[in-house]
């Protein structure tokens, strides 16, 4: 039994050894911690975060601030009128640690190279579309007001805006006019009163950061508003237009036009009426001006026609001249971006009644067939030359000169065949008497009839003259029967 004792001791010691090891390890740990507390120092570091991302640790918070301030200061030289700041969100969080470690150079370099300087600005949006960024809300509002003065007088706009603010109104009413000394009921002719100025869409402003170079001046903002926002529209090709022409019309480069129309190439031949996609611009917002105006306007006179058999058909006389009337009209107008979109009458008052025009219209029918017996075609006068040989050639007509009046008359009823200038005849009229006879009247100073017109025997057709090959003022008169030249004497 005594020989098993060492084994029993070993069995007992197996439970004691782990406890001894734990105590030894704890002693070593406590000794090490105490030693570290004695040998190390408790220091302060700063964690630098940019937009939530940990960049590194530094021991000098002010140096990091100086870097940011320097970047802003350098930019300020170019944008002195703007409020500048670092564009990113930078957080510097302190922490106390034993044996602090840090890398100032790494963090400084990152901040120098990656931080941006932006302007604290106000963004203007109209109908949800961005117009641009401005120095502040006041600058944005001034730009919008300046744009509106393209369509309404600046003084009227200021007065109207003040009235709206004074009355705390979103819409202006006819009871609160621009001109306090007038009401719409006492407007005189030509007077205009603006009753409202509004915008067709909602305008909103929000504070945002943006690149300083992107902040618009008042002049630039007005230009953006005037140009409008781009929209894709369709252009129909007109005769003679080329791709270059169409691109220029819509302020596009040729490549931009081709990108909008992928089926086209620079060498493509266009067809009239072909539809191409282009970019046009439409206003960000319409300036809606409402006005009331009083104007003197004319009232058209009516025309009354009276038939009379004392005048030939086709003739008419004015028995009474018409006169326009006048009225005072009070209108309400709506004008969109300078273009009148509606005009409604509020009331009107006649100040002068119109006078009817009375026309007497002839109903007497002139027979187009001649009687066969000719009347003398002039007012008096004598035969200065007859039909026959003269100066070695045939003289086809009878010349009548020395009348008491230069009026030339139709020798018989008939239809005007021609009334025109004809070489040696000068101004010449030919009448077909619809009975086989034709008469010619030449050398006229003027013509009073036209082809196709029916004339009556004795009716004035022209005035005696000396046009064409003529030795003086006279009428050259020719008569034909079934196409054969006749001597006029035999028919008087």
What do you see in this structure?
There is one protein chain. This protein has 492 residues and is α+β, with helices and mostly antiparallel strands. Helix 2 packs parallel to helix 3 and helix 4 packs across helix 6. Helices cover 23% and strands 41% of the residues. The N terminus is likely disordered. It has five domains: 73 residues, no CATH class; 93 residues, no CATH class; 49 residues, Membrane-bound Lytic Murein Transglycosylase D, Chain A (Roll); 78 residues, Single Sheet (Resuscitation-promoting factor rpfb fold); 114 residues, Glucose Permease (Domain IIA), CATH 2.70.70. Strand 5 and strand 6 form a beta hairpin.
Percent strand equals: 35-45%
The counted number of beta strands is: 29
Using the alpha-carbon principal axes, give the shape: elongated
Mean pLDDT across every amino acid position = 87
Helix content: 10-25%
Unreliable stretches: 1-39, 169-182
Instruction: Give the end-to-end Cα distance, rounded to a whole number of Å.
Output: 191 Å
User: CATH homologous superfamily of the largest domain, by name?
Assistant: Glucose Permease (Domain IIA)
CATH architecture of the largest domain: Distorted Sandwich
Give me the secondary-structure category.
Answer: alpha+beta
As for the CATH topology of the largest domain, it is: Glucose Permease (Domain IIA)
Q: Number of DSSP helices? A: 8
**Biggest sheet architecture:** 11 strands, antiparallel
Task: Indicate how many domains the architecture comprises.
Answer: 5
Oligomer: single chain
Class of the largest domain, according to the CATH hierarchy? Mainly Beta
User: What does the radius of gyration come to?
Assistant: 52 Å
